[in-house]
Specification:
Structural class: alpha/beta
Order of helices and strands: HHHEEEEEHEEEEHHHHHHHH
Number of strands: 9
Length: about 325
């Protein structure tokens, strides 16, 4: 299997800004043969190809994966290059135009047919289906739709095998990353983390790589939910720390960005709590002031009451009012 060097991997991630794209690009760059098997791509895997091409404007174009496959007795009848591109949003005119241009440039470079494929979690029928460069050159990408049914199928396979401590092949282990990238259901992501925690019998670099992808997806999907992030990260923290200590930190720049964002979330949450606490204290202080004012008002009324009562007593003692009048007035103060 052809491996991408660290420089290439760093370039992969610097050229992307979306954590889903970055994570998928890492899987495709590090595990092209296993990804070919995982997604059941057509043809027999031969090798990964250098996937940089330069157009006539000297602009470098780079898609997620370019592999050479051989005849499979079914779909592929001759050596063919498959260009696989991850699409986290609906395919638009600009992007499909880039794919068409990439296809033509790759065809010139490798002198073989090019099969363009899109892997997406968005419904293909809602996306642009083709791009016409010329009347005789029309690009029609094949869509791989990672819908809920496909994700649950992959999750069930992991659950069954891990529960029974069965051996998982590398293409199956990649499902930790594939499911994490494509699921829109946070409960599935939680289940995936628990499964990962239960699969400690799986060893090797690929396990650590999947931990890093899970780490990225947890902090992306649960952004702002600090307690949930902490809960899920605790399940895979040991592997994340092991990967950090090794030479496999494929997303050094991305990791720093995500960690900084995570720290910012915590700081913002703490600031929010502090603001709420200050507001509560302010409200309590206002209530206490109101109570204090009411106490003062009550005391003033009590003092006035006592003053008038003393006056009445004085008038009675001086004989200026009779007993009946005194009792009538005094009853008001009871």
């Amino acid at each position: 299997m052809k491996r991408c060097g660290d420089d290439n991997l760093n370039r992969n991630f610097k050229s992307q800004h979306h954590p889903f794209d970055k994570s998928f690009r890492y899987i495709s760059g590090e595990y092209p043969k296993d990804l070919h098997a995982n997604l059941n791509l057509p043809g027999k895997f031969i090798k990964a190809l250098e996937n940089d091409v330069v157009n006539n404007k000297k602009i470098n174009l780079r898609m997620d994966l370019l592999i050479m496959v051989g005849p499979d007795g079914d779909t592929i009848t001759e050596n063919t290059a498959i260009n696989l591109e991850h699409q986290s949003t609906n395919l638009d005119e600009h992007k499909i135009g880039m794919i068409a241009e990439y296809k033509d440039l790759s065809k010139c470079r490798y002198h073989c047919p090019i099969l363009s494929m899109i892997i997406t979690g968005e419904e293909p029928k809602k996306q642009i289906q083709e791009f016409e460069s010329t009347k005789s050159d029309i690009t029609k990408p094949v869509f791989i739709y990672m819908d809920k049914e496909e994700i649950e199928k992959k999750l069930n396979n992991l659950e069954t095998k891990i529960k029974n401590k069965k051996h998982l092949m590398n293409p199956e282990i990649l499902d930790f990353g594939i499911i994490a990238i494509f699921t829109k259901d946070n409960e599935i992501l939680e289940s995936l983390c628990k499964l990962y925690n239960d699969s400690k019998y799986i060893k090797g670099k690929i396990r650590s790589d999947m931990a890093l992808i899970l780490d990225t997806m947890i902090k992306t999907r649960f952004k702002g939910n600090i307690e949930k992030i902490k809960e899920l990260i605790n399940m895979i923290e040991e592997e994340i720390e092991a990967a950090k200590r090794g030479m496999r930190i494929w997303y050094e720049e991305e990791f720093a960005i995500i960690e900084a964002d995570h720290a910012k979330q915590i700081n913002e949450k703490e600031a929010e709590y502090a603001k709420e606490l200050a507001e509560k204290n302010r409200e309590i202080s206002q209530k206490e002031n109101q109570i204090s004012r009411k106490d003062n008002e009550i005391k003033e009324l009590e003092d006035q009451r006592q003053h008038y009562k003393d006056k009445i007593d004085e008038l009675k003692e001086k004989g200026k009012i009779d007993l009946e009048t005194y009792n009538e007035i005094n009853s008001v103060f009871e």
